[in-house]
Amino acid sequence: MFKKYLLKVGGLILLGMLLTGCDHEVALLTPEGVAAGSGRLSFTDSNTAHASFVIAGKNYQGTWVAQKVDESRAIAAHYGFASRKYQSYATGNGSYLKKGEAILLSEQGETLKCEISVRAAAGRARCVSAAETFDLVIKG
């Protein structure tokens, strides 16, 4: 029992170390896949990151706040309740999907609204400005 508790706590600490204080480079692409800019997500904790994107010479900044997505039903349906995958997820040792939104502002007052999804050190996002839509590829 104690060993199981230590494994769970160790997994949470490792996850926190992976996400907290980590910087992730972001490649900004148009929906057609053409490079449109670059950026960085700097995680301050497991659910919050400072986002900084540069598009066409404009620097957009803001904060991304995320929530863990409950995937337990989908995992159980696909792998079964008795599977290692489900048991790992249920005990807090799985790789969690986090989703959230960020409103980024440029120095010129322009807005970039982003919906961001991250699992471990990789993710995707879609950002919309007044003029364009961008797909983001997050690579850790």
Arrangement of strands in the largest sheet = 1-2-3-4-5-6-7-8
What share of the residues does DSSP label as strand, in percent? over 45%
Q: State the shape.
A: elongated
Main sheet properties: 8 strands, antiparallel, barrel
Share of helix among residues? 10-25%
CA gyration radius, whole angstroms: 17 Å
The multimeric state of the shown protein is single chain
The CATH class turns out to be: Mainly Beta
Distance between the termini: 34 Å
- Count of distinct structural domains: 1
Structural class: alpha+beta
How many helices? The count is 3
Please give a structural write-up.
The chain is of the alpha+beta class. It has a single domain (2-66, 96-139), classed as Lipocalin, CATH 2.40.128. Helices cover 24% and strands 50% of the residues. The chain is built from three helices and eight strands; from the N terminus they run αββββααββββ. It has helices at 2-19, 72-79, 84-90; strands at 23-29, 35-45, 48-55, 58-68, 97-106, 111-119, 122-128, 133-139. Residues 1-20 have low confidence and may be disordered.
